[in-house]
Amino acid sequence: MSDTLVECRGLSFGYGQRLILDDISFTVPRGKVTAIMGASGGGKTTILRLIGGQMRAQKGELLFEGQDVAKLDPQGLYAARRRMGMLFQFGALFADLSVFENVAFPLREQTDLTENLIRDVVLMKLQAVGLRGARDLMPSQISGGMSRRVALARAIALDPDLVMYDEPFSGLDPISRGTAAHLIRQLNDTLGITSIVVSHELAETFRMADNVIVLANGGIAVQGTPEEVRRSQDPLVHQFVNALSEGPVHFHYPGPTVAQDFGGGLQ
Amino acid sequence: MSWYRPADVGFKARSVLADWGYGARLLMRLFMLFGASVRRFGLVRNQIHFLGNYSLAIITVSGLFVGFVLGLQGYYTLQRYGSSEALGLLVTLSLVRELGPVITALLFAGRAGASLTAEIGLMRAGEQITAMEMMAVDPVSRLLAPRFWGGVISMPLLAAVFSTVGVFGGYMVGVVLIGVDAGAFWSQMQGGVDVWKDVGNGIVKSVVFGVAVTFIALLQGFKAQPTPEGVSTATTRTVVISSLSVLGLDFILTVMMFSI
Q: C-alpha distances in angstroms, B38 versus A28, B34, B35, B146, B220?
């Protein structure tokens, strides 16, 4: 087993004419928490979708356990996905199933476990996220932070090798945010999984990540440990880490200049 | 962007063809997933409960009133020719051949089809379908197939309930209220309705309508834009397209069944 679980080589991806990711390369080491940071719309979530094989890159390779995800046939892709868990931004719980049934869903679909065993596994996973007592509630009855924890329990139900978190902190209060960061770190270390966290919350992410990749303007501005990233002299990273509105990352969407556009200039 | 530029016409034609191809392939897959749906019949059973049982009230009430009206109108026309004993036959033939399957399908499109589209569309909007794919579960076989077969099984049953209740409604108005001879009402009906040609063809119609309505509802929900606006457009399209398809298919089927 190599030390690298996910490797990305020269990846380019765009919607129509607009290139979101331009020739990026990075590796995700096994057993570590890797954070992908960057401004909104910078292609962070896109990377998760590419790893999950839901979208295909125009150029480059994305290797999961040495296999190019984009080249897998449907069976191979499903086999790879069985080893991944994904936490969606708003949980994406099945609204017609209770908390218990949501966590039991992957087990019922993918395994032949008996009802007793499923119950034990589900309660174990819910215990890990602190929601064993909430098993009978419906998704509409729990808060946003709780539904994300339920979704996390569902994502780890099949003991995946890789768990991907899409914006796990957005819209959470400070207490839930701290809980979520702690939980991600704890699950990573106790279950021996590999985690990829997409986020733009600086404090939480820097505190729990082993490696940080900062995306900006379609490329990788810097990657390294949180300490290295914080000390980076790169102007892009400086702007991001200090939350400045002006810098290499533009505030304005690309378009004609003010002088060209105003006063009926382009009509 | 204007419609007469060749490139735009070509693009439009291609996207229409791609939509049709996508729909045809989805329909094929749903048919091929019959075996998988039978193996997990619990999922289909839940859908029959949801689509069928919950539509019973509207189907029963509509069937009763359509039967009332048929009884009244039929008697009014038939008594001019002195053949009001044939009322039972008229009511029954109208119901099992045409009104039963067609009105049931129209009500089914509004009651069950719209809810299917909204359900699947909202699952798409809430990333639940993506989540399912990421759990290596195929949403077509887990979500769509049980709903499809549940709808296809429910439709003929609902049409049968509709026709039965309608005959009873015709009886109440014709025999109980107006005073047509009960013996003539039933015996003319018994003598004039053919099990295969009339009832059988009615069942075939209702199965075809069940396939059409359920499939259109699922397709619209599955490819709905993941926004509130997209789901509302999809729901509207389900009701409009499936109602028109039912009426169009009814004409084609009637031509095929009763012209020779």
A: 43, 6, 5, 9, 24
Is the pLDDT at A164 greater than 80, yes or no? yes
Residue showing tokens 């979708």: A49
- Chain B CB within 8 Å of residue A78 CB: yes
Structure tokens at A12: 């380019």
Global pTM reads: 0.86
Q: Give the range among A197-206, B24-33, B237-246 with minimum mean pLDDT.
A: A197-206
B92-105 tens-digit pLDDT: 999 999 999 999 99
Domain ranges of chain B: 33-258
Nearest to B136 among A54, A110, A151 (CB): A110
Nearest beta carbon to residue A92 from set B126, B136, B137: B126
- Domain-wise residue ranges, chain A: 1-29+37-83+200-267
Q: Which of A78, A79, A88 sits opposite B131 (nearest CB)?
A: A88
A219 near B CB under 8 A: no
Are A110 and B122 a contacting pair at CB < 8 A?
no
Q: Which of A88, A108, A165 to mutate: most B Cβ within 10 Å?
A: A88
Complex ipTM: 0.82
State the Cα angle at B214 between B213 and B217, rounded to 5°.
85
Higher-pLDDT residue of B38, A144: B38
CB contact under 8 A, A109 and B127: no
Superfamily of domain A1-29+37-83+200-267: P-loop containing nucleotide triphosphate hydrolases (3.40.50.300)
Q: Judge: B127–A86 Cβ closer than 8 Å, yes or no.
A: no
A35 contact partners, CB below 8 Å, separation of at least 6: A196, A197, A198, A199, A205, A206, A208, A209, A211, A212, A213
Q: Is residue A236 within 8 Å of residue A42, measured between CB atoms?
A: no
